[in-house]
């Protein structure tokens, strides 16, 4: 009983979630998690990642609220790819909370010459456009913007690390500006993983420098719930 109580106390405050809320996770492969695209097998629709772990935690903590969790992450996506499917995979789903994690592939487009190249300026401008469209269509939506992240030394990050790190830093700054503009939660994944490297090597958390292991996804789920809890700890209402 004590373990259950501790787990509940560590989860997101009830103020963040309301009866019947729909929580949508959007992004690239880190969010995709190998999710099932078609069918209604609830063992696979959320994938195997932080979004699944968050849904498991909150679903168990608040069963009486009948929360619905959706995952529309697509492996390989950049912000411009999200734009191409935003109406279908975000706005039309009418989420009450929308969590977005995108940017590491945008950095890869610049550092690794992976067309189409998405500059930091293009990234921020397109991201802003998507958030503006979303808030116009869904005025009460609660936004959670997640920092793109990476760690050095992995098979995907060992080359041109300083350039990659600098580009990601600028994209995280863009996320912070957009969060302030749209009164969104920011989830600070990069600092979390940097700190975690004091406990275990980088590859323990991000096996290739970009994609999390199961341990890395667990860290992400915990950070996400803590940041959302902190934002709503005062019972802050949904943005206008």
Can you tell me about this structure?
There is one protein chain. This protein is α/β, with parallel strands linked by helices and 240 residues long. It has a single domain (17-231), classed as SGNH hydrolase (Rossmann fold, 3-Layer(aba) Sandwich). The protein is built from 10 helices and 5 strands. The chain has helices at 2-9, 29-32, 50-61, 79-89, 104-111, 120-137, 161-182, 189-196, 202-205, 214-231, and strands at 22-27, 68-71, 97-101, 142-146, 185-187. Strands 2-1-3-4-5 form a 5-stranded parallel beta sheet, with helices on both faces. The radius of gyration is 17 Å and the shape is globular. Residues 1-12 and 235-240 have low confidence and may be disordered.
Can you describe this structure in just a few lines?
The protein is of the alpha/beta class and 240 residues long. The chain has 10 helices and 5 strands. Strands 2-1-3-4-5 form a 5-stranded parallel sheet, with helices on both faces.
* CATH class category: Alpha Beta
CATH topology: Rossmann fold
Strand runs, count: 5
SS summary, helix count: 10
Distance between the termini: 40 Å
Envelope shape: globular
The amount of beta strand, in percent, is: 5-15%
Strand order of the largest sheet: 2-1-3-4-5
State mean pLDDT (0 to 100 scale): 90
The low-confidence parts are 1-12, 235-240
Fraction of helical residues: 40-55%
Q: Helix and strand succession? A: HEHHEHEHHEHEHHH
The radius of gyration is 17 Å
**Domain tally:** 1
